[in-house]
Design a protein that fits this description.
heterodimer; A: 269 residues; six-stranded mixed beta sheet; 11 helices; 39% helix; B: 225 residues; MetI-like fold; 10 helices; ArtM/GltK/GlnP/TcyL/YhdX-like (chain B); AA_ABC_transptr_permease_3TM (chain B); transport (chain B)
Chain lengths: 269, 225
């Protein structure tokens, strides 16, 4: 069953084959000359990036390279010092109603899941559709159960987040983001906090999403996933994008010494 | 002993405690509302609101309650003509409730803020990332968890409030316990220890259950993470 089946627009199928040309002209996400400092630390240096509709972009790099920060700037969980970020052609608005509307269109999955600890699994998924999209309780519940079934945790719907395993919680977090029918999904190291045996159940859901044409930006250390699912891989180090290419280009023929060094360290075992 | 028992018939001791309980309940209600408002101001994205709430809390936290109570009578009532009722007793009762509420709200806000610190930042980020506005995030996600994390300090604030309600004497509420105790001591100087014990035990009987209840609730309501 398709994870995106409930979406009424052509978004799911538009992906790689049949996108409307005018929409294809402009990237869904565009970062240009983005700079950011944390105090004296220069965490993002002249970041330029375009992500087209239906594209799966995987961001890899050593810890502290700014990849999570970059991911978080895209829905303005981190502000930027200069440069522009456009989503579907629109520059990111300032804090307020407009920004909330934009965030509703951008799904986000966190490393620590961040399920609402005071709500049941189903309520976690239905909260935003009811409060932000003004969906009726009944419709939201149907949608929620549908999405939970698709990520394989429908039997846990009435439980509290703390009663679920990490892998289950992360799959709920993905369902929660999907419930808003986002144009794009951001994954900020979604498997880094999981026990090893739970990594695959989350990656499987992500693979499925990718194959259905969801536009995704994934910060991850899962190189297998990057190879299989990514259209493009971006390599970041010290706040800069050093390489961008297809998975084959990047993994088999890295250009920079920094990338060669990084790959040699993670692919030897 | 008979003289001791006679005190109970001669003076309305239970009634005096009831006045303090009423002062406490009303003040608890109003200070809770005001405290939640202050907390929301303190975490709001608007810096002037944050500053205002911070200043309020610092002001009332550092102000002796007696001064506030005396101000309620001599300042708010006598000078500023703040009046709740034509009946003297009712009027001073509500002036005392106002003073207690204004004062306790600062501590409610601080208690809630300590509960807020038990809520991980990720909860707010997840709410924002889904497109929930500040008010929705606060009421649906952050405050419910902050409340459950601050049951114990809120209980302590309630206990302090019940004891502080005796300061209502400074706001001319003559029917409450500490005023009654002074009167009784004045006329029964030979039973002074017994009179002290009556009021001390009365408060202990009232307060111990609050402590037990908040401890139990605090464990029961704790947010599992």
């Amino acid at each position: 069953m398709s994870l995106l089946e409930h979406m009424d627009t052509g978004q799911a199928s538009a992906g790689k084959t049949s996108a409307v040309p005018t929409e294809n002209d402009r990237p869904l996400v565009e970062l240009s000359h983005v700079e950011k400092h944390f105090g004296k630390l220069h965490v993002l240096k002249d970041i330029n990036l375009k992500v087209n509709k239906g594209e799966v972009l995987v961001v890899v790099g050593p810890s502290g390279s700014g990849k999570s920060t970059m991911c978080r700037t895209i829905n303005r969980l981190e502000t930027i010092d200069s440069g522009t970020i456009r989503i579907d052609g629109q520059p990111l608005p300032q804090e307020g109603k407009e920004l909330a509307n934009l965030r509703a269109e951008v799904g986000m999955v966190f490393q620590q899941f961040n399920l609402f600890a005071n709500k049941t699994i189903l309520e976690n998924v239905t909260l935003a559709p009811v409060k932000v999209r003004h969906m009726s309780k009944k419709d939201a519940d149907d949608l929620g159960m549908d999405l939970l079934a698709r990520v394989g945790v429908e039997s846990q719907a009435a439980k509290m987040p703390s009663q679920l395993s990490g892998g289950q919680q992360q799959r709920v977090a993905i369902a929660r983001a999907l419930a808003m029918q986002p144009k794009i999904m951001l994954f900020d190291e979604p498997t880094s906090a999981l026990d090893p045996e739970m990594v695959n159940e989350v990656l499987d859901v992500m693979m499925k999403l990718a194959s259905e044409g969801m536009t995704m930006i994934c910060v991850t250390h899962e190189m297998g996933f990057a190879r299989k699912a990514a259209d493009h891989v971006v390599f970041m180090a010290d706040g800069r994008i050093l390489e961008k290419g297809t998975p084959e280009q990047f993994f088999d023929h890295p250009q920079t010494d920094r990338a060669k060094d990084f790959l040699s360290k993670i692919l030897t075992h | 002993m008979s003289e001791f028992l006679q005190l109970f018939t001669q003076y309305n001791i239970i009634g005096a405690f009831w006045v303090n309980i009423q002062l406490t309940l009303w003040s608890a209600l109003f200070s809770l509302i005001l405290g939640v408002l202050l907390l929301m101001m303190r975490i709001s994205p608007i810096s002037s609101l944050r500053g205002l709430a911070g200043a309020y809390v610092e002001f009332f936290k550092n102000m002796p309650l007696t001064i506030i109570m005396v101000f309620m009578v001599l300042g708010a009532y006598a000078q500023l003509k703040l009046t709740f009722s034509d009946k003297f007793v009712v009027n001073f009762f509500w002036l005392a409730v106002t003073g207690l509420s204004l004062y306790t709200a600062a501590f409610v806000c601080e208690s809630l803020r300590s509960g807020m610190n038990t809520v991980p930042l990720g909860q707010a980020e997840a709410a924002r990332a889904l497109g929930l506005g500040f008010f929705q995030s606060a009421t649906e996600v952050i405050l419910p968890q902050a409340f459950r994390g601050s049951v114990a300090p809120l209980g302590n604030t309630l206990i302090a409030l019940l004891k502080n309600s005796t300061v209502a004497a400074a706001a001319s509420v003559a029917t409450e316990t500490s005023s009654l105790m002074s009167t009784m001591i004045e006329f029964h100087a030979n039973s002074i220890v017994g009179i002290f014990l009556i009021f001390a035990l009365g408060y202990i009987i009232l307060i111990i259950p609050i402590g037990l209840l908040t401890t139990a609730l605090s464990n029961k309501l704790a947010v599992r993470r």
